[in-house]
Design goal:
Length: 434
């Protein structure tokens, strides 16, 4: 992409309600813009990042034997009435009616629709297990949409649902998904913890959450410094007041609070703040029984499916990467999530030699399959450099005055170090780094 042709509307000012770095930098860097309360547009850079995350999620799920589908976003209210959730979902579930006064729901999740899809289509134990997922828009009329993409009203979620002939097999799949989610978050370069979680309104027995560690996280978790034990405080403390009080506390305030108890392994437990990016539940037959979704077991007897459900906040992940990877000047994308890997900056567009080298390297990198952007704008070097830092390309190749001595510079966004490299070596050097 040529920067002169790109639509990357960067700005100096952050929106007044943007208190978190991810919210500020994603808007200022021209990744997203707010359309309304909890509603965001993804601009070209934001869309690239979103699609990259989506691709990683898909690759790992497909590899684990899941199949992608896409259900309609609008679902008939009758479906939710049959499961009983039309009553229990409350105001988060947005209802609409059509020209014939028929009632619909903008899907906040899709257990009912998935059960309905599988019902009468999978009829025998021989067809089981199956794990279907989609990466699709969700709408939740959140009481307090905030923090940009972290808590939107319309957002992108990966929601998966598995169907089994026995509880044992469902637990096997649950464990497989835990491993698969770990692979996904590891590939994204995130520092995360898997924690025991409360099953909440969706119901079911076993439930685990995946939290990206960040001081700004809305959730409070307890983790061990030796083993991989972790738990959401919702599973540890009984009283709502106590949980709310801890969630209100900042990361710093929590550090001074000691936990009396030791971990079972003998390690020390401490409080951390986390952003919930994934949640896996063992559902049992809650929905299959309510919606009379059955298969014939080995003896020919009809049984309700054993189910599990698996969610990932795909758009929330875009912001989570930045909550964990930024400095005071902007975003620092990980290699798996960056909008472009290499930003070739022609310092002075009036210098023919600089332009020519920029063009040649731009072609060379693209031919090598490297996602490259060429900053060929007429603006001053300092302005372009600030822009590069704000957006957070992993590497910026600066073609400037040193070209007279046959040298260019590689700027590493993460370390903020600049190193001089000979023109002849720069391609090989960058290919080594990426
Ligand atoms: P939270 O406690 O943050 O409201 P939840 O328990 O309601 O999350 P789930 O119903 O398990 O969330 O949804 C699956 C995933 O979707 C969550 O783990 C989270 O990453 C993401 N998610 C949920 N609500 C939102 C939202 N309002 N905006 C963006 N992502 C969300
Ligand atoms: Mg919620």
């Amino acid at each position: 992409m040529r920067r002169s042709r790109a639509f990357i509307p960067t700005t100096k000012e952050a929106p007044s309600d943007a208190t978190l770095p991810s919210h500020q930098f994603l808007v200022r860097g021209g990744f997203i813009n707010q359309q309304g309360s909890g509603l965001y547009n993804f601009l070209p850079l934001g869309k690239i990042v979103l699609d990259k995350i989506r691709k990683i999620v898909k690759e790992e799920l497909d590899d684990a034997g899941c199949s992608e589908v896409q259900l309609s976003f609008v679902t008939p209210l009758s479906l939710w009435q049959r499961s009983g959730r039309a009553e229990t979902m409350g105001k988060e579930m947005l209802r609409i009616s059509d020209r014939h006064d028929a009632d619909f729901v903008l899907s906040p999740t899709n257990e009912e629709a998935m059960v309905e899809l599988v019902k009468n289509r999978v009829t025998s134990y021989k067809d089981l297990p199956i794990n279907l997922y989609q990466i699709n828009t969700k709408f939740r009329d959140e009481a307090r949409p905030r923090y940009g993409l972290l808590r939107g009203r319309e957002f992108l979620m990966k929601d998966g649902y598995s169907f089994h002939a026995s509880k044992e097999d469902m637990v096997r799949e649950f464990d497989l998904m835990e491993e698969t989610y770990k692979k996904i978050f590891t590939r994204l370069g995130l520092d995360f913890r898997v924690v025991q979680a409360d099953s909440g309104a969706i119901g079911g027995e076993g439930s685990k959450e995946f939290h990206v560690l960040a001081d700004s996280g809305e959730d409070t978790i307890v983790v061990c410094d030796v083993c991989d034990y972790g738990a959401n405080i919702e599973t540890i403390f009984e009283s709502e007041e106590e949980i709310d009080a801890l969630n209100e506390k900042s990361y710093e305030e929590l550090q001074s609070k000691s936990i009396e108890e030791k971990c079972n392994c003998g390690g020390t437990l401490s409080f951390k703040k986390g952003i919930e990016v994934g949640h896996i539940f063992q559902l049992g037959d809650k929905y299959s029984s309510a919606l009379e979704a059955k298969f014939n077991d080995e003896t020919g007897k009809p049984q309700a499916f054993e189910m599990a459900t698996f969610g990932i906040g795909v758009s929330r992940l875009v912001a989570s990467v930045i909550e964990q990877n930024h400095d005071e000047n902007g975003c620092i994308w990980t290699k798996e999530t960056c909008p472009y890997m290499v930003n070739i900056m022609v310092s002075n567009i009036k210098e023919t030699a600089q332009v020519e080298l920029g063009e040649a390297l731009y072609t060379q990198f693209r031919e090598a399959g490297v996602e490259t952007i060429l900053d060929d704008r007429k603006d001053r070097f300092g302005f372009k450099m600030k822009d590069a830092e704000l957006i957070g390309f992993p590497y910026t190749l600066i073609i400037g005055k040193e070209l007279m001595n046959g040298e260019v510079q590689i700027y590493d966004r993460k370390t903020t170090q600049k190193v001089g490299v000979g023109v002849d070596e720069v391609f090989a050097k960058l290919m080594e780094l990426i």
